[in-house]
Amino acid sequence: MCSSHKERDHVVIVGAGVAGCHAARNLAVDHEVTVLDRSGIAAEATGLSAGIIAPTLFYSDAPDVARHANDFFREFDDSHGFTFTKRDRIDVMTEAEATEAQELASRLSDEGFPVAYRDSSAVTERYPQFNLAEFAGAVMYEDTGWVDPYTYATALQSAARERGATFELDAEVTDLVSDGGDVSGVETASGTIEADAVVIAAGWRTSSLLPDGVDVQIRPYRTQVVVLEPEEQLSSEFPLGRVGSEHIYFRPEHNGDLLIGGGHYPIDDPASYTTDVDESFRLDIADFVPEFVDGFDDAGFVNGWAGIDTASPDTRPIIDAPRDAPDGLLVAAGFNGLGIMTSPVVGPTVRERLTGESPSFSTDLFAADRFGDVSESFEYVSTSDV
Ligand SMILES: Cc1cc2nc3c(=O)[nH]c(=O)nc-3n(C[C@H](O)[C@H](O)[C@H](O)COP(=O)(O)OP(=O)(O)OC[C@H]3O[C@@H](n4cnc5c(N)ncnc54)[C@H](O)[C@@H]3O)c2cc1C
Hints:
Helix content: 25-40%
Protein name: FAD-dependent oxidoreductase
InterPro entries: FAD-dep_OxRdtase, FAD/NAD-bd_sf
CATH architecture of the largest domain: 3-Layer(bba) Sandwich
Distance between the termini: 27 Å
CATH topology of the largest domain: FAD/NAD(P)-binding domain
Structural class: alpha+beta
Bound molecules: flavin-adenine dinucleotide
Strand content: 25-35%
GO cellular component, one term: cytoplasm
Number of strands: 20
Order of helices and strands: EHEHEHHEEHEHEEHEEEEEEEEEHEEEHH
Pfam family, one: DAO
GO molecular function, one term: oxidoreductase activity
Radius of gyration: 21 Å
CATH class of the largest domain: Alpha Beta
């Protein structure tokens, strides 16, 4: 964390994905904020995302974080062109997973979240299209939904602009500038931009912008999506969901198609990958989905793509000053495929690091020093296992 909370009038944010845009929105209330992006708004992981919102599940151990994120999407809904689509979710469980799933559901329900465990026959009574013969049941969430990630990012941008933030797109940051032990700006192709603080929210490129000797424990991984057109369009009740044992998740599209995500694996050379979906992932989906949901025997392949996000050792982002960083430097990276739903914590956490103002949740989960000396090649943990 920053050793002291100095007045930091001008903050430069590197990256206009959801993380950078959310930080800009919250900081612009009382700071001069400049957001720089090498290409455009939502140009990388954000724009390629499935946009699923399920913080109750992924922050089940941190209910205040889940509540904050859930509340944010509902409060921000219907502003700046943004819409939160509410939709129930089923997380399908095998026999071996059922006991733990029941405990999770009852813990979350005790915390006041609308979550319950139901056996397979109760789930198929409500959603007859699913074939759950191989499964024991599902954890059912009633506080989940999805967003269009591009519109969400532009809505955050517009909210930040309303508060006075400036966005410079096509502006690649090539280096950080420090003065003594303090960060003093960034280098771009068109010159130096001075700053009192710099927040690097540059996705997998974050590490390459850090000064020599300063590291954050993140590593790039690839994750994919396929969209299928069923024989008849899905109803407006069709839920979101996940089959953890198959490492896939799904959600309906507004037009009744089905988006299916998965196919994650860590990579070392992100710059060499395309956004094309792997044939092997496409074939896995073509095998699994018609068995799992009725109406997909003759489904059409609509689209498929892949993107690169960053993993951290414990699947939670690092939103903090890295160890040995110049004073005034923060990173917000390592969102582990959950960056859209986790984005509401970015602005408040960055504010706490820079100004000392405490949010409604503990930011310890996002501290840079929580891993000790984990190496950069730490084992990748898929959030399908969370
Ligand atoms: C296929 C896929 C599906 C996903 N599904 C979900 C989901 O359902 N729900 C969910 O919550 N999350 C999901 N995610 C994860 C989510 O999209 C990411 O965690 C999130 O978008 C990360 O946001 P970010 O702002 O950290 O990074 P990014 O969106 O990658 O933004 C980083 C920005 O930094 C810019 N940049 C990089 N280097 C520089 C530089 N040197 N100078 C200037 N600018 C720079 C880039 O141009 C980019 O715009 C998914 C991701 C993918 C790829």
